[in-house]
Amino acid sequence: GEEVDLVITINEGEAYTIGNVSVSGAQSLSVSDDITPYLKTKSGNAYSGEFLKEDIALIEDQYGLKGYADARVTPKLDPAGANAVSIVFVISEGRSYNVGQINIEGNTKTKDEVIRRELAIKPGEPFDKAKIEASRARLQNLNYFAAVDVMPVDTGSMIDEKDLVITVTEKPTGTINFGAGFSSIDNLVGFMEISQTNFDIGNWPSLTGGGQRFRLGVRVGTKRRDIQLSVTEPWFMGKRLALTGEAFYRDLLFLSDYYDQTTFGAGLSLRKPLGKFVYAEAGIRPQSIEISVDNNASEVLMEEQGDFFYNPFEFELVYDDRTDLFLPRQGRRLSAGVEAGLGGDVDAVTFSATGAQHISLPGDTILNISGRYANVSNGDQIFTRQFLGGANNLRGFDYRDVGPKDENGEPLGGDEMWFVSAEYTFPILPKIRGAAFYDMGEVSGGPGTFGGGVNSNWGFGVRLFMLGGAPIRLDYGIPIDSDPFNDGSGRFNFTIGYNF
After folding, report:
1. In this predicted model, what pLDDT tens digit does every residue of 387-409 receive, in sequence order?
2. Nearest to 188 by CA among 220, 160, 218, 166
3. Which of 97, 111, 156, 480 is close enough to 127 for a disulfide, judged by CB 3.0 to 4.6 Å?
4. What share of the chain is helix, strand, coil (3-state, %, to 5)?
5. Could you tell me if 469 and 366 lie in one domain?
6. Pair (43, 147) in one structural domain
7. Domain check: are 267 and 391 in the same one?
8. Rounded to two decimals, what is the model's pTM?
9. 298 and 410, same domain (yes or no)
């Protein structure tokens, strides 16, 4: 067909300046304290229709905080000289309301109490629009519902109250995943996971609707066999206190060429939020650990042979304001913790601190700086000591290969460990990012008499975001400084997901 050129002629007119700005009709709010300081529309500025709309919404929201659900603001514009306009925000306050009844509809699976405990507003309180929106956001963030609507309705009998009707649309909350994977640490692994984020241990046979979290994970591979079962009650005793119970079995063959470690046990922990970004977690994790050492191992490693009962008390304080778990562009995660053996055969006490800072840079590039420090007292057993090396810290070295060793070059771990890492990532394609990194760290102390010292590496890699956000990480690390037992050739690391 034929083409037609379209020319749009714009007549901008004159730019207007704002003259006097005033507010009328405000009886329940202080104009000088609650309204004027927050307005973007100010005398002497250039007139902006967008700023005017934002200021109208701001004033109505300020009234919403006080329960004035019907407050309306109308701007009145009058000429104020050449290319100038004065603005009056005319307020119709309406009536102040309290919340009457809160009715819930559409929850065919989720219990009423699971929804009500998330609400930031209660019956009898002022009709606060901010709290109502916070309640809607909390319910949406549960990820139980495809949609959440909160509507005010007149009570019909009480002129100073409005009821709230919360309508939810349920969606599936259970998943079954299975497949196979590969990593440079544990080689080929088959996995299956069953999870339910809206679990109810007391609601047979559906076992749904109670807002609990259930997870059963099984991993079987050439170098590992894991089973873990956990149930979390996020509102223990009706308070925002998460109680988690778990049971686990782990048979790990990838820790060493000279010994295997088998662990089975259980755990009980409590997590308490202390602020928007801060939480504390404490628990116990009694477990039985068997160390089976090969006959051709060194004498110092043969001493690790045996069965041990380990009953650690664990405490951790965490600050986490990251924007995303898998690809944080800004924010930080800081933590400090202690793990102490109580009774049993193990008396080790471990203090640790970790930190990660994520900095957004131009061009959708990100700088990640992270580190960890740990110190162990009474670390007589190899499973209580610290190790470095591998995909999660010093990527230019084999798994757990940095630090003190026996005469065969077998890692024995140490009493003290530190490492720092800097990584710069950049976009290549929408779901592919490149990476360049530098890692440095040291493991010291312990029974080993060979190796040790500061080790470092640099390298490059690729991040593939193909599996629901969790990245596939491909890294090639090249040692810079290493001990005599670590050769200077590079290491390839392949993993799925990040530790957090």
Report:
1. 999 889 999 998 898 989 888 88
2. 220
3. 97
4. 10, 50, 35
5. yes
6. no
7. yes
8. 0.81
9. yes
